[in-house]
Amino acid sequence: MTARTPIHEHITDAMKAPDLIRLGGDVVLARFETMKVYAALGAVRTLLRRGRIVPGQTLIDSSSGIYALALAMACHRYGLRCHIVASTTVDAVMRAQLEVLGATVDQMPPSESLRLDQERRVRHVRELLARRPDFHWMRQYHDAVHYAGYREFAALVAEALPDGPLTVVGAVGTGASTGGLVEALRGSGRAVRLVGIQPYGSVTFGSERFSDPEAIIAGIGSSIPFDNVRHELYDTLHWVDFRHAMAGAVGLLREHAVFAGLSTGAAHLVAGWEADRDPGRQHLVIGADTGHRYAERVFARHAEALDVRALRPRRIHTLDELRPPWSVMEWERRSHKELVVADIGSESGSSVVGQEPLTQGEPS
After folding, report:
1. Is the alpha carbon torsion for 197, 202, 204, 205 positive or negative?
2. How far apart, in whole angstroms, are the C-alpha atoms of residue 61 and residue 70?
3. How far apart are CA 360 and CA 311, in angstroms?
4. Average pLDDT of the chain to the nearest whole number
5. Using CA atoms, how far apart are residues 80 and 126, in angstroms rounded to an integer?
């Protein structure tokens, strides 16, 4: 008997389910319209169930884009108000959607750096909370409640992909998406490797001494530490610059007709290299969003894109060896603290994985 096509009660139910697309061999892409619907829905439902928030209350957070939309949709579904302190990177299309959904949007002015943009947003959130203590700060990068929604995604993956060893490849970002998925899969007894991706300039895995002038990969790194990143979950780390992420995104569209964002492009690039090293093992590529935000600055420049087949990473063993444009290091599930100890006394003194936060509070 043919299964019926479900009729959803709300758009978030339709959006949260990814399209699973085979990219060749044992590599499968989970391509989302907005992956953070899982994070926002899971967090809001959990907070409502625990009584930490109530219908009609205002939820506030800062965002560089897709979490803002996911939170606005979750608020729309559950009768909550939404207030977004938006990054300068939030475009007119995204802002219009947020406003029509009823969200209040305070957008930061153009900024010369990610760090300054984040610091302005954190400061503005704190100012609003001082005036409105009834607001609930979602703290997407620090409140572990955002892990909850990804258990549902893990169940979908377990059903769709054959039993056996699995490698998950995705941008680190908040830590909740890859972390929540992999914790749930490992908790079921499955052997899972987690391969994380970072941009240059992010403190999350120690690349803050570098800058990437063209970088616009919103949301996959940070200028301040995130509590939701559980370093001990990651087996391997790749650092990828804008040009390589662009090559992956354009290559994904050219080879597979999949229009996806830069973090997905970076994951596509990395997964291809990882799969070549470990043939026969299932690889799941996380595609967090579509390519619409990058239409002009990436896809309109497709003629400039590098050939993904010709690209290879630099293998490194310590963060002192880290160099652009693409490096890979076996992280070996070390904790944040263990890596700091391992790198103490390096000649360059450039490894600052364990530094104190650059600013207190909530980024992006």
Report:
1. positive
2. 12
3. 38
4. 89
5. 20
Rounded distance, CA 260 to CA 293, Å? Answer: 9
Structure tokens that stand for 39 in this block = 């994070």
Structure tokens at 110: 């153009």
The residues near 116 (Cβ < 8 Å, ≥ 6 apart) are none
Distance CA 41, CA 150 (A): 10
Of residues 155 and 364, more confidently modeled: 155
138-152, 281-295, 332-346: segment of lowest average pLDDT: 332-346
E strand segments, 212-274: 236-240
From the list 143, 125, 134, the residue with the least C-alpha distance to 53 is 134
pLDDT tens-digit series, residues 256-304: 999 999 999 999 999 999 999 999 899 999 999 999 989 999 999 999 9
3-state secondary structure of 200: coil
CA of residue 137 relative to chain centroid, distance: 20
Round to whole Å and give the CA distance between 205 and 243. 20
Cβ atoms of 324 and 199 closer than 8 Å = no
Peptide bond into 325 cis (omega under 30): yes
Structural contact between residues 358 and 203, judged by C-beta atoms closer than 8 angstroms: yes
- In this structure, the strands spanning 192-198 and 236-240 are parallel
The rounded distance, in Å, linking the Cα atoms of 160 and 323 is: 37
DSSP 358: S
Using CA atoms, how far apart are residues 206 and 237, in angstroms rounded to an integer? 11
